Amino acid sequence: MDSLKIGSFLTFLRRLQRNKLAMFGAIMIIFIVGVSVGGPFLAPYDYGEQNLAKAKLRPCKEFPLGTDEFGRCILSRILFGARISLMIGVISMGIALVIGVFLGLIAGYYENIIGNLIMRSVDVMLSFPYFILAIAVIVVLGSGLFNIMLTIGVYNIPTFVRIINGVVLSQKQNEYIEAAKAFGENDLNIILRYLLPNCISSIIVYATLRIGSAILVASILGFLGLGIMPPTPEWGAMMNSGTAYLRSSPHIIFFPGLALMITVLSFNVLGDGLRDALDPRLKEIINK
What we know:
Layout: H1 2-18, H2 20-37, H3 39-42, H4 74-109, H5 113-126, H6 130-141, H7 145-171, H8 175-182, H9 187-223, H10 235-242, H11 251-278, H12 282-286
Helix pairs in contact: 1-11, 2-4, 2-11, 4-5, 4-7, 4-9, 4-11, 5-7, 6-7, 7-9, 9-10, 9-11, 10-11
């Protein structure tokens, strides 16, 4: 059994390595994580340090990416902002994953009034436009890191529920589930020992894809003035402050936007590569 698992893992790695875009995404994510962890040591200046005499400087030797309207080092702020963006993406998806997987397993295994109630609630949540709902929640709860992570995480719960529910419904028809019931396995053991492991591939792929989307949504909220409040460096808020100087100092908005684009693209191409390497059939499930 162990040799079979090792063989499957090696096959997965070979498939992933053949996907050049996925490997690019993985390398970039490792780099971004390293930058976010080492931000305080790598940043040439404190992200909040102002020097109005050097405001809106273009990239130069002293400031490799230039300065913003307050004379703050854009490179330092991007490095610190990477930590905020990754935190939002990972924690919000963690909230969605834990709750969504639990509800998806329950709804898929128990096709009764409980399962129907869960799925109908999911349909209602998915009927609301994403950004309108997010803006409404932020306006009610207030801006802040925790509220943004909670809003993005809650909105992604229904999609996790639907994906896991679909996998469970297909796996329930297999004979090994009937055999487990015949041998007296209780429902909890069947769900945790047999159904949940078959959902792992879908969970990994979809969570990876949605981390990039969560970072993008958080940046859009920041750009609209509903995200992390200044002076905390957040890429969307940095882009928002640069719009007033788009003609005279385009670097203020360009470099945070470039960091956001590379990060989101890296998670998306890695997620696509994981999907194809783990099981090409996941493409049909995730795209439903």
